[in-house]
Amino acid sequence: MSTHAPIGGKLFTRPFYFFLLLFMIALAILATRFIFGLGSVTNLNDGYPWGIWIVIDVMIGTAFGCAGYAVALLVYLFNRGEYHPLVRSALMAGMFGYTLAGMAVMFDLGRYWQFYTLMMPGYVQYNSVMLEVAWCVMAYIVVLWIEFLPTFLERFGLKNLRQKLSKVLFIIIALGILLPTMHQSSLGTMAVVAGHQISPLWQTQLLPPLFLISALLMGYALVPFEAILASMGLRQPMETSLLAKISGVALAVTIFYLVLRFADLLWRGALGFAFESNLDALMFWVENLLFIVPVVLLAQRSSRTNPALIFISAVSLLLAGSIYRINTYIIGYHPAAGGTWHYFPSVAEIMLTVGIFSFEVILYLIFVKTLPVLHRA
Amino acid sequence: MPLNRRDFLKLSAAGVGGALCADAANAAQRETKQLPPDAVGMLYDSSLCIGCKACMSACKDANNMPPETPGQPTPLWDTPPETSGRTLNVIKLYQNGSAEHKDQEVDGYAFMKRHCLHCVDPSCVSVCPVSAMTKDPMTGIVEHHADRCIGCRYCVYSCPFGIPKYEYEDAFGQIQKCQFCAHLQAKGVIPACCDVCPTGASLFGTVEDLKQESQRRLQMQTDQEYEFPRGKLGGGRPGHIAKASRYLKHVYGEKELGGTQVMYMSAVSFDKLGLPTNVPDFGYPTISEGIQHTLYKWMLGPAVLLSGLVYVVHRNTRNHHDDDHSDSETSSDKGTS
User: Fold this and answer.
1) Which of A94, A244, B86, B210 supports an S-S bond with B43, CB 3.0-4.6 Å?
2) pTM above 0.80?
3) Is the ipTM of this complex over 0.90?
């Protein structure tokens, strides 16, 4: 007997209030941003027009949100039904990650009230990689909510609707695989045009596949990360055998990623930059060692049944993919604008990002407690 | 099983191999753009510039920009250190050692003028999702239209010369950059900076004429006196008599990044003056748009991929009862491969 069920329990717990407080702080920061402008709360400047609100909230946020994509790929494309118990919670992670990333974009846009021009035929500019990302992400947010809809319908006992939806859901699922493939690679393509402003350690025409594969990896890492936290924090049973299997998948993809990453560096003759004594080189090694850690930890089949090792590997991969994005867009970016520019996020910038992730935790707690999301073996 | 993991790995290996080849041969690169028919431009000759900053003042007047007074307890002068949301044009100083000799790299100094170069293949136009940056098909002037801009600042991020700037201190800020005084040119007036330049260091003209003028300067005998045109090349103003400098045998902007309509001549190397020199002869959009249009030509790739996905997903969901029949979902693991 296996099924999904709400786990119930008290909603307004102390952790809930803690995350709510962080979210309220973020709202205050947002109010300041909208009344006094981006400069009043961020450290953005003429050299660094993109900060953590774009790179963490949007790029890393959606990469975390690739959990749904990564698991759907296994279940529906590679026909691995055994991973099915993970689908719902992974989809939910994707839904939150993408929805909040979409909201975060609006906070960062300097002229958000003209957002509608993105949809106006006379204005859209088809050479823009960002246009493709914007459309694709908007479409995928809708797709994720439809994919998750069965959970609501079940909760409210709408069996008829549920069955009708089932009949067409395969099209939505297919879209749910296509769209992230498109925009997660395009998030890499977006950096290509920056040319010499980005260090050769990151600037390559292979940015699209590297961003796509690392987003998938982060998706595969998020599943055990979330499952293990849920089993500890919410006293849920742990599906160790499944987590072992998905860790095996993550291991294979990581090795593939690393081979591609270093082959590209060697091919372009750019590896030498990794041995200079500067921040770029340091961060390059931090990033890649974090990719290598899981390969070492999970190499042996037996270690893939150890929840502690699985958890450390998952955290390592999530950090690796995150730092890869920060390195590409911020650390490895040396602005062409004259003068010396520096960027380190302000406290307010960081607190807004923290607030957004806190909001995700709040939503997660509400959803798993009241809706049939988590799998009961 | 229609597509197993081994097949997929083979497929992706092929894709990656293809991408690597593309990297080598730039097979995906799109064609470079050509100079528009009536391209107007500017030749800035660092050796003629005396650093009077009349162009900065005229620029602020022409574009209604406020002064910038950083670090002045009592604001007296407009002293912007860089172009910004309030400054579209700035004269900068290169100094070395004792800074005694003009236009000399060692123990010398030189002036430099920074503003939009009006690229032949502009990154800002390529990246803007809503056509808020446009390049005039006739004159080639790169203009910004704040009335449709969403403020994403991708133009700021991507410009290889670091030119577009955003007004961070304004709740309703906008992107600012030099638009070559398009509003004045529409009335038959030349850009304000070229109009007021007393030595002809900033010279307005058609790009073709300016290229010829730059060739004339490259033929000059160092330290011989020549007449240098002022204002508009061929505009009939009396010229400025000056000694020819020890010009570098290169006009910046003829080839760099696909060419720019604002070009530079100098005796001090261009990287010392803050221009990127280790750059290709094509604009970066040829690569990024090349990748994008190879992947998304007529949306054919995504359409094919989607139909394949729909087929496979349909097959797999039907075979396995593992998704959507939750009311009777008692065996999600049954029937898996």
Assistant:
1) B210
2) yes
3) yes
